[in-house]
Amino acid sequence: MASFSGIRTRQRYRELPETFYTPVRPTPLRGDIKLVHFNTDLAREMGLDTTSPEDWTEVGAGRALLAGMDPVAMKYTGHQFGMYNPDLGDGRGLLLWETEDPDGRIRDWHLKGAGQTPYSRFGDGRAVLRSTIREYLCSEAMHHLGIPTTRALFLVSSREPVRRETLETAAAMLRVADTHIRFGHFEYAAHSLGPEAVKTLADHTIRHHFRELTGLPENERYTSFFAEVTRRTARMVAQWQGVGFCHGVMNSDNMSIIGDTFDYGPYAFLDDFDAGYICNHTDQQGRYAYNRQPGIGFVNCQLLARSLISLIDEDDLRRALREYETTYNETFLELMRQKLGLEKGDENDLTLIMDTFSMLHEHRVDYTLFFRGLSRLPSRGATPVRDLFVDRKVADEWLARYGQRLQDESRSASERETAMCGINPKFILRNYLAQQVILEAGEGDYQPLTDLLNVLKRPFDEQPENEHYAAQPPDWGRHMNISCSS
Q1: Is 89 annotated as a binding residue?
Q2: d(CA 449, CA 135)
Q3: Which end of the chain has the smaller Cβ count within 10 Å, N or C?
């Protein structure tokens, strides 16, 4: 059994009224349990013993709880594809406890795939190997890309059959986050419990996760809290756009109150650039398409604002909401300047950026390879960029315009190349790579998962020995549509 000698543990979420949760014990997975992967790097950050990863298998399988674990299923609601759903909550996950890192950081432990809860509705409470591998991979990929995200500590599988579109096998994953409080928690409080519950939840969230605001007068404290959530959300979405990440299901119950990327489902990283790319095959109207993500982020902040109307004056809410557009635009512009290697701002940069997106869209150019090739122009020349275009004249015209813009820069070419290689990844989690790992894991071979994770830990490094992970996807792997089922 895993040991927690010297690790401080707690369960602060249970400070909230019982209307926000239900105590539930995990339902054990059946059959032989395998440890698919243990995140040694994260475990070390958390101050955990990493000498015997297999000790975590029983916890992951829901067969054992450590002393002090006090699992609860959280209650929340939210807007799904624009419609309010009052019947949401942790339908297959349990918040086990919190632990304190050696540096004082406190993290939630959430076991996903732990069995049925009062909020499972018609679900079986299980997660499947396919979806848990996808979340495990992507949360780690996003972390190493520098994008705020939940993390994954370990993943276990069983041979227990689970029915989705097809018959799959059950698995469970231990997700780690600074908090699992979502926008949907506030919607639940506002719609179902009333103003006092909203205040209680806001006070709890500020006290534990926005401690820099605790000394402000009450009215100012709530306004500042909402404004900060809005800014964090805007920055997160801008970072998604910059790296070409499509979340796929930006329901308000999937929005973290601290601005973490949360609940990885039918996500994708762009291959050939398609501004309107829809990665979720159930999103028939394209509500969560790549180019609509910034707007949906704002809509979700509006929904949160409605939930806080009992605490914050409407005019203050409107002013705070305006922070979203300002923060998004500033973050996105600065990020794209960095991706283009532009250190000095120019009033025409936004036009150049948008024209670049239009060109990539019209000619379906691989997004990641384009910017990585651009990063290496000084040392490798224009051929890798030109070869991404069917019509190389288009590339040549754009490169000439780009070259003119670089005339205004003072950095040396080598300095610019180093900086750009640190912002434009060579390696991203393309869906076909995840799919290959899933197929191998389904046959009991977990080494490809470990190999891919090791590549994704160093997305900005050259890694010549792993060149095949950076290649364009095969025809079967382009623009894969992924199901919400998990």
Answers
A1: yes
A2: 12
A3: N
DSSP state of 166: S
Looking at 57-208, which runs of residues are DSSP E strands?
A: 72-74, 78-80, 83-85, 93-100, 106-112, 127-128, 151-163, 167-177
Chain-centre distance for alpha carbon 127: 18
Which of these is catalytic: 253, 271, 272, 274? 253
Cβ-based neighbours of 254, under 8 Å, separated by 6 or more: 78, 182, 247, 262, 263, 265
Per-domain boundaries in the chain: 9-177, 183-337
At 23-32, the pLDDT tens digits run 999 999 999 9
**φ, ψ for residue 337 (rounded to 5)?**
-60, -45
Residue 91 labelled as part of a binding site: yes
253 among known catalytic residues: yes
Is the predicted pLDDT of residue 3 greater than 80, yes or no?
no
pLDDT in tens, 212-227: 999 999 989 999 999 9
Average pLDDT of 328-352? 97
DSSP secondary structure code for residue 439 in this structure: H
Bridge partners of 369?
none
Instruction: Check the annotation: does 123 bind a ligand.
Output: no
Instruction: Assess contact for 186 and 309: CB atoms under 8 A.
Output: no
Q: Check whether 175 is labelled as a binding-site residue.
A: yes
DSSP annotation of 366: B
Whether the predicted pLDDT of 453 surpasses 80: yes
Q: Please give the Cα distance from 339 to 459 (Å, whole number).
A: 15
Q: Is 182 annotated as a binding residue?
A: yes
431 annotated to bind ligand: no
Least Cα distance to 354 among 379, 375, 380, 336 occurs for: 336
* Rounded-to-5 percentages of helix, strand, coil across the chain: 45, 15, 40
361: tokens are 């869209």
Q: Which long-range contacts (CB under 8 A, 24 or more apart) does 41-47 make?
A: 41/457, 42/151, 42/152, 42/153, 42/176, 43/153, 45/101, 46/99, 46/101, 46/107, 46/153, 46/176, 47/6, 47/7, 47/99, 47/101, 47/102
278-289 tens-digit pLDDT: 999 999 999 999
Show Cβ contacts of residue 190 under 8 Å, excluding neighbours closer than 6 positions. Answer: 198, 306, 307, 308, 309, 310
CB atoms within 10 A of CB 239: 21
Q: How far apart are the first and last CA of the chain?
A: 28
